[in-house]
Write a structure and sequence with these properties.
CATH class of the largest domain: Mainly Beta
Order of helices and strands: HEEEEEHHHHEEHEEEEEEEEEE
Structural class: alpha+beta
Strand content: 25-35%
Shape: extended
CATH topology of the largest domain: Elongation Factor Tu (Ef-tu), domain 3
CATH architecture of the largest domain: Beta Barrel
Oligomer: single chain
Number of strands: 17
Distance between the termini: 59 Å
Length: 421
């Protein structure tokens, strides 16, 4: 019995000690100057609406195929009607010859450039640094296994070495370069002569921009169908996967205007008006925004279809088709504050009939001199990390401004309270 009483006394003593320690820590913290502030600043937010989208263009598929194809154009490169797009070779040897020709042409160009600039005054130390930099770049490519630019890097290194020889007075360097150019030009002429006998040339059926991507949508949706396109038809297009297209070499995108057919899962979208321009940002595959004109707007059955057009960035978007985009319909400008800085105060207001009601007002505490000052604001936009706000009265002398020091820890702080000595 005595032992049980002793245990109870020990437990009670420990609890009392814990309570004393708690209040001691609380009192110590209460006397500490733990004011935490930050600076408010001007900020703008793009308010967008997410939509599923389909890129629509005038496209002519190039049905020519072959086992040994050498495409001469880059993705998105412009080509005239009848211009050469590709060469179809009869054998692997012929294709290898064509690739050798391309390498020779690049090398001759590099050598001619080296010859034309070699006699100019050159900084030797700079050339030494460029030679070392080129060697390091080649070693880095070899170490990572990236050989895509190895040939160009080697040509650049050779050019730098020749120019370095010039700068050190090597009189034989010019002769060496001229001889190399003659030898490689002779080799190039021989390859071109033999290649012309075994190559088939593929030309562009119309002028436009070349793309090597054929996805099957080329015949399903074209710009001339957009004026009568319905929401249900666009929904079906966005949800279907076209059958595998017939083997093709690529396509030519004709015309300068391309379109974006978008489907929004809501019937009303504020801020969208036909004829206005809007910024469109893509979620994947293309980074940046494209300014487009809203050509057509249709709403029905809880959905909205918006058709946009532009003449910009055609070469950058040739590989895109089904996309998710953000339509920037509005840009908000205000003052950015952290979420923990905003405070809610409930006020009692009386209407014209004398009826009282409770309303919530929002504001922040700013440090003005040594005191805290309450400044009422309205919330324009809410994010996970911040609020975009504006003063309730833009003309008031005492209002929140960009650059103000605002208080984050507002516990026990009141308007007019001295917070800084």
């Amino acid at each position: 019995m005595k032992e049980s009483t002793l245990v109870n006394k020990v437990i009670i003593g420990v609890m009392c000690l814990a309570v004393i320690v708690y209040f001691a820590v609380y009192l110590v913290r209460g006397f500490r100057d733990d004011l935490v502030t930050t600076t408010a600043y001007n900020y703008s937010v793009d308010v967008g609406t997410e939509a599923s989208a389909l890129l629509v263009r005038n496209e002519q598929v190039i049905s020519a195929t072959g086992q040994y194809v050498d495409i001469l154009l880059e993705e998105g490169e412009k080509v005239a009607k009848g211009g050469t797009i590709a060469l179809i070779h009869a054998s692997q040897d012929s294709l290898d010859s064509r690739q050798t020709i391309q390498a020779l042409e690049a090398e001759i160009q590099q050598l001619e450039y080296s010859l034309s600039t070699g006699t100019q005054a050159t900084n030797s130390s700079r050339l030494d640094a460029e030679v070392i930099s080129s060697m390091v770049a080649i070693r880095s490519l070899a170490a990572t296994g990236d050989l895509s630019t190895l040939e160009d890097s080697a040509l650049h290194l050779r050019t730098m070495v020749f120019q370095r020889d010039y700068s050190y007075g090597n009189t034989e360097a010019a002769a060496q370069i001229r001889q190399l150019i003659q030898d490689k030009q002779a080799q190039l002429n021989s390859l071109n002569a033999s290649l012309s006998q075994v190559s088939q040339t593929i030309t562009a059926p119309a002028s436009g921009s070349f793309s090597g991507e054929v996805d099957g949508f080329e015949g399903l949706i074209t710009p001339d169908k957009l004026s009568s396109l319905t929401i249900s038809q666009l929904s079906d297009l966005l949800n279907q996967t076209p059958p595998n297209p017939q083997p093709a070499l690529g396509k030519v995108i004709t015309g300068t205007t391309w379109y974006l057919a978008t489907l929004i899962d809501q019937e009303s979208v504020s801020g969208l008006l036909e004829g206005n321009q809007y910024d469109i940002s893509f979620f994947h595959d293309y980074y940046g925004t494209i300014s487009m004109t809203l050509e057509r707007l249709v709403s029905e059955e809880g959905k909205t279809m918006a058709i946009f057009s532009t003449k910009d960035h055609l070469a950058d978007t040739t590989l895109l088709r089904q996309q998710t985009v953000d339509i920037i319909a509005q840009q908000l400008e205000g003052i950015r504050i952290p979420r923990q800085a905003l405070r809610v105060v409930t006020k009692t207001v009386t209407d014209e009939k004398g009826n009282e009601s409770q309303v919530n007002t929002y504001g922040v505490y700013s440090v003005i001199g040594t005191q805290a000052e309450w400044q009422e604001v309205k919330v324009l936009y809410s994010d996970d990390a911040f609020y975009l706000v504006a003063p309730v009265d833009e003309t008031a002398s005492a209002r929140l401004r960009a650059g103000d020091e605002i208080i984050l820890n507002t516990t026990h702080i009141t308007d007019g309270m001295v917070v800084r000595s």
